[in-house]
Amino acid sequence: MDTGCLPIETPRLRLRQWRDADYEPFAALNADAEVMRYFPAPLTRAESDAMANRCRALIAGRGWGLWAVERKPDGVFIGFVGLHEPAAALPFSPCVEIGWRLARAAWGSGLATEAARAALAYGFGTLGLDEIVSFTTLANRRSRAVMERLGMREDAPGFDHPALPAGHPLRPHCLYRLPRAAWRESVA
Hints:
This protein is of the alpha+beta class. It has a single domain (8-187), classed as 3-Layer(aba) Sandwich (Aminopeptidase). The protein contains five helices and nine strands, in the order E-E-H-H-E-E-E-H-E-H-E-E-E-H. A hairpin with a 3-residue loop joins strand 1 (8-9) and strand 2. Helix 1 (23-31) packs across helix 2 (45-62). The mean pLDDT is 95.
């Protein structure tokens, strides 16, 4: 059943269901070596399309997920931001994570933080989640800075991501947590 999802609006952005027109710019950002620097490899067009299809199906099925993000003034697709239940058996599972991936042209202007705040409000306010987590490889300072701006706190000592082989330079990860009570205090 398609429960859909009303677009989530921020001052500059719209978080919404995926459209066919999003696939080409999504493939371009997933092929960008700098955007994918902290992932094992850039994605092929087929891998990118498959990811967009999964995101789209999850939103259609439950009304939330990793939403497509567009700039409101011109409707340009800039990437995704949203909530996800990781499939990997992580040491802190089950959980709901907040994640983002934006095209390089959208970096450095606070758009990831703006969209992520809206996703947190949806997760805590609409879904009633008790906690939202985020994680990344240790060297990903840009994403860690977003997590900290969101009020998330690092949960030491971190973990090794089970999807990456032992010895892989991206395997050591940090985990950030945000309990609902801390989120409420930050928005009060």
